Each structure stands twice: as structure tokens, then as C-alpha cells.
Amino acid sequence: MVMQMEKKTIENLKRWRLILGEDSANKIEDMSRQPLSFTEEELLMDSALAAIYGNEKEGTEGSGRGAGNGMSNPQITRWLGDLRSLFEPMEIKIIQNDAIERKGMKQLFFEPEMLEQLEPDINTGSLLLLLKDQVPKRAKDNVREYIRKIVEEINRRISDDMKRAVTAALNRREHSPIPSAAALDYKMTIRRNLKNYNKEFKVLLPEKFYFYERVSRSSNRTVILDIDQSGSMGESVIYSSVMGCILASMNALKTYIVAFDTQIYDMTDISSDPVELLYGIQLGGGTDIEKSVKYCTDLIAEPNKTTMFLITDLYEGGNRARLLRRLSELKESGVNLIVLLAISDQGKPFYDEQMAEKIAGFDIPCFACPPEKLPELLELALNKKSLAGFEKNK
After folding, report:
1. Superfamily of domain 158-168+219-392
2. Would the pLDDT of 45 be above 50?
């Protein structure tokens, strides 16, 4: 009985520690007369709460969980996403509303004209998508328009080069006057400019460059994007979705776009509108990668003509051994499988390093890729060329 009482007391002290924050740790451990031990889920919960209620360097006084000022940092998106796997729906609503109040989002939502003045920002866009269910009706159109600006900005940066990269990979016959390093036909350019070789300086001075353009519509090539929509993947989800919509617009490819948490969401039918597709994404929650990989496996008709991008942080909430087995089987079947740990403008990606090492052991490329490198990555992938240069930069 005494031991049960002590155990109950320790659990209550742990709850108070989670409620009051890290600043209370020393005092509460003094009360418990022993270090408090937390599970992995409790530590994740503590981080999620600290991201919203924790002290900031400025704008707070005293100890405990205080309100912060200003726009949130990129990690907030991940912690807000984690709420779905840690708390009940009513609790999530309260915490998300507090996030809007404390992290500078309220002004955006309740003075929606402010969004018209903001430059497109991927971090802000991730947060707006994650909190879209809390957006007041009068601000919904402004939020959607802001997301559209982000989509247009990403399109401006990568769309043309991505389409040319696909064209260059799938067809080596037709040519285009539009310059693109990814689509340059080196052999023809050299052959047709040999007359311009300068013997004195030993250099070739081309008068004209030749680029690949049109793609055979009967290529039967398939690309699958399997996108993890857990909280840590906010920016990756946006880039991946836009990338998928660009590819889906090309008749030369059969493109599937699949999103997952613990459930599977086939987004292929709405890939003509990237904003609509993004609004269909549910950021946050648990993760069952294995279930999604199984779903994608059923989409594959010709493994040797299929390139599949698994975009995830590899924190598997389902069966890890079965996931590794499925990935190995896909690789052995001839599918060109690539694991993208992040597609982000920010620094080092957040991922399960142990899983990444095991997957790389199957000779499956597993690395992060910055957005500006996506066209180059895509061309190499479709041509089944080595991605060693990308992997070294992870």
C-alpha cells in the first residue's frame, strides 16, 4: 500500500512538472527526493507544451510557462503537429488557440489584411496550414491567397527547370531553343560546333547550344510521391506537394501523390490544384510509414519503369521491421526507390538516424535535398544514375 501511494505521488509530481515546465524541475525533484524519470512520449509532450507556453528570452518574467512574443520559429510547426498524437481533441483545440495568442498568429488571423503585406514565407505557410481549422471565416480567403503566393513562388523557382529535367531524362531526340543546363545535349552541341574550335587557346567556342524538349507521350514512366504529413514535415509537405503537382501536369509521366499519418490519403485526383491539395493535407499526428509503403506498392504496375520518392523523417510508429522488409523488397523488384529526409530551406533535417542507416544499407539513397536541387535530382533519378553527390551533402 505504501509503495502504491509513493508511486501515485511520483506520478502526480511528474504531471506538475509537465504543467509548470522545466523551470520547476529542481523544486519538484526536491519534493520527490529522487530524479524524475519520463517516458519518450512524456518528453515529447513536454517539448510540445514548452514550445507554446515556455519562457522566451524577451517578453517574459518569472518562472514557469510564460507567454512569448513574435512569430514562431520553424520547430513550433513540428510540436503543434505532435499534439495530435499526444492529446485529446478538446485539449488540442485549447493548446492551438493558445499558440495563436502567444506566438504572434492572432494578429494574422484577426487582422487578415496583414497577410497581404507579408512576403511568402514557408514557415508561416506551414503554421497556417497546420492551424487552418482555427482560422476565422473572415480570414479564410486571405489565408488561402497567402498559401497560393507560396505555391507561385515555389513554381517560379523550380517548375520550368523541373519540366526540362523530365524532358531531358525521357527523350534524347527532340530539341528546344530554351536554355537549361539540365536539358543540354552535350554531344550534339559539341559535334555541331567543332568548326569553332580555337587551336591557339585549345577551347571550343559554341555558336549555338542544343537542348532537349519534347517527350514521347508513350513513355509509360511512373513517379510516386509518398509524403509523411507528421508535424516535423511541414515545409517538406509544401515543397513535395508542389513538386507532385508539377509532375502530374506532364503527360509523359503517370504521377501518384499519396499522403499519410496513421491513415492513407490518395491526393492524386486533386493534383491539378496545388492549393487545394495542400488544404487536404492534415499536418501532425501519428506515423505508419509501412502501411503507406504497402499502399504505394499496389500502385506499381511496372517496377522497372517506376521511381518512388518516400518523403519522411523515418520516425516509424508502426512496424519498423516490416517497413524495412517492404523497402528492401521494392528495391529488389526493380523500383527506383529514393528516401528524401527533408525538402526544406532550413538547416539540418530532423530524422531517425538509425532507420536511415539501415535503409541506406539496402543501397537505397537516403538524404536531404534542398529545393533548388530538385530538378537535377529528378533527372538523375529518372535516368537511374548515381545520387552519390546528393548523399554526401546530407
Report:
1. von Willebrand factor, type A domain (3.40.50.410)
2. yes
